[in-house]
Specification:
Radius of gyration: 21 Å
Number of domains: 2
Number of strands: 5
Structural class: alpha+beta
Distance between the termini: 29 Å
Strand content: 5-15%
Largest sheet: 5 strands, antiparallel
Amino acid sequence: MANKKNETPKIEAVDVYLEKRTSRKYVGQLSRLNDKFIFEYNDLYLFDDKSIAIGPDLPLSKKKFVSNDLFQSFEDRIPSKKNPAYNEYCEMVGIKPSEDDPLILVATLGQKGPSSFIFSPAPRNVITHHDIAYFRKILNLTVREFSELFDFAPATINRIEKKSICGKESMKRLEIYILFPEVAIYEVKKNRFKVNDNKAKFVIHYLNNKIKEGK
């Protein structure tokens, strides 16, 4: 359904990038679940010994940061409504001065600031948590079997199917497996020794049929 005129599109998550002179590096993602704000650093960013933390409240760590309030490192990027130019700032980024959704404010008013970090609305996933659960069930696989065949941690699949927060990379990989059965078959054949042979054969047969249907 199209957005109503002048209605700001809903932002479900904010991607964070580190701006360098000639490139951008993906840092992590800010999201919201059950009225709590969540931030997770990207694994590749953490493994780079030149990486820097977004702020003192978000030190470099594999932990999932959870807060009832917007993290200070993000809050500091949003100009005060008492600023005489606040209405002008809002007009420049296409939001109403009355907008109070923290994720929208971070991704618009706070997009660029004095630091080298860039905040951007995260692209929406083409597939949903329901699609992933359906895909696993139609393949007649348990969570453990699905995880083995597609090289995920079982806890990751459990979190996704329960609509809990999950990594951007995991959702993107699952989206590719669902939309491109050829890629899924390659992954299954690579890992088929990890599950019952009949299960692997069934999955490959199903995916081959999906390829034929698409031709």
